[in-house]
Each structure stands twice: as C-alpha cells, then as structure tokens.
Amino acid sequence: MNIVLLGPPGAGKGTQGERVAQRLGIPKLATGDVLRAAVREGTEQGLKAKGYMERGDLVPDAVILGIMKEALARPEAAKGVVLDGVVRTVPQAEGLERVLGDLGRRLDAVLMFDVDEDELVRRLSSRTVCEACQTPYTGREPGASCEKCGGRLVRRKDDEPEAVRNRMRAYREQTAPVIDWYQRKAAAGGNAPRFIRIDAEGPIDEVTERVMRQLKEQA
Ligand code: AMP
Predict the structure, then answer these.
(1) Catalytic pick from 28, 36, 123, 167?
(2) Which tens digit of pLDDT belongs to each residue from 30-78?
(3) From CA 174, how far away is CA 87, in angstroms rounded?
(4) 214: Cβ contacts below 8 Å, ≥ 6 apart
(5) Residue 159 CB less than 6 A away from ligand 1
(6) With contact defined as beta carbons under 8 Å apart, do 52 and 166 qualify?
(7) How many angstroms separate the CA atoms of 59 and 170, rounded?
(8) Cα distances (angstroms) measured from residue 12 to each of 107, 187, 193
C-alpha cells in the first residue's frame, strides 16, 4: 500500500507516519529526515537544501523528486511506503504519480491531517527533537535526554517563530493546492487514490486508531 500523508507543519505526520508504517509492515519515507541527514553529513544535496530549510522555505521540486525516485525503487519499498511530508507541491504530486507508474505501482490513499492552527503553533513552539535519533517531543525542554536513545533534545532551527511563519505560508500557498488536486482526482473516481480526512487532534494513540480504522474501512 502506498500512502501519502498531507497536512500542515506540526500536524503529527511524522509521529503517525512512523506508527502506521510499523502497523502495515512497510517503510516510511520522510523527505525532511532525508534532508536533515544530508545537511548533517554535509553532502552536496545537504548544502543545497540547508538555506531553504533553515528559512522554512520549500526545497526545490527537482531535489525532492530525486529523493523520491531513489527511495521508491529500493527493494524494501516494493510492498509499499508511507510518504510523510513528501508531496508538498502539485509538481511533486505529478512527479510521484509518474515515478510510481514507471514502477508499475499506484498511490492507494492520501491521508489529510486536520489540526486547528492555534494548536499547530502551540505544538511547534513547544517541540524538541532528539539530536541523535530525531524522535520528536512536545513540551520537553532542550537539553533533556531522549527516552528512546538517551540523545540530547534540541530545538529545530525551523521551529523558531520566524521560520514557523514561513512554513505556514509555504503550506498555505504551495501545499494547500495539492489537497484540492487529490480531492478532485478522488471525486472523479476510477483508479484515483482515496482521499481520507483525519481529525488529528487528541491523544496520539487515538489518532493512530482513527487512521488505521479509516484505512481498513475504506480498503
Ligand atoms: P519536515 O521535517 O517535513 O517538516 O521538513 C522540514 C523542511 O524540509 C521543510 O520545511 C522544507 O524546507 C524541507 N522539505 C521536506 N520535505 C519537502 C518537500 N516534499 N518539498 C519541499 N521541501 C521539503
């Protein structure tokens, strides 16, 4: 099953994506994680992406399409993949369709994570992540230890207020049209991916159950 997770920054795509991927026994691809690793390692791709990411702007589509193509062609992704934060522009959505088509596969479902904007700002401004394993936390201070690996928690540069504003703007201007694009496709029927709206507020476990229920119900 190939699934795209859509939703604003802070909607919980990363956390839920990890859980859904585990339940379905397929890998998760998060372009944000791939790019952050590239920045840490100082690769050419990382150097290209760094400035965009720190400002909270979107990285150019060509870079994202390259990552997508490589990840989807890996043998471990053959049974399917959960794409977290990958499709953020219409050209990326078109590109994904092409890449999957070339591999003889298709997108099965698009999960749209709905969260109220005040709640998003609250989540992002109190978020820290583990420097080592990238596990996100809400409401734990920088400098504390990661529960999973003991690494140090830090604040992401792009969780600073200025970058958060930019990310929200990028979402409204560039990603919101992707929602319409998928909704129109789903309404037209045929072989189009299902479009599923998820209420992403509330306890993490409950949201996971909602996602799994919806995926099963509509399969
Ligand atoms: P995320 O971890 O998904 O919040 O992504 C962090 C940052 O990486 C974003 O603010 C963008 O700068 C960049 N990024 C990640 N995925 C994409 C994408 N699909 N398209 C463009 N930029 C991306």
Answers:
(1) 167
(2) 999 999 999 999 999 999 999 999 999 999 999 999 999 999 999 999 9
(3) 10
(4) 111, 196, 198
(5) no
(6) no
(7) 11
(8) 21, 26, 21
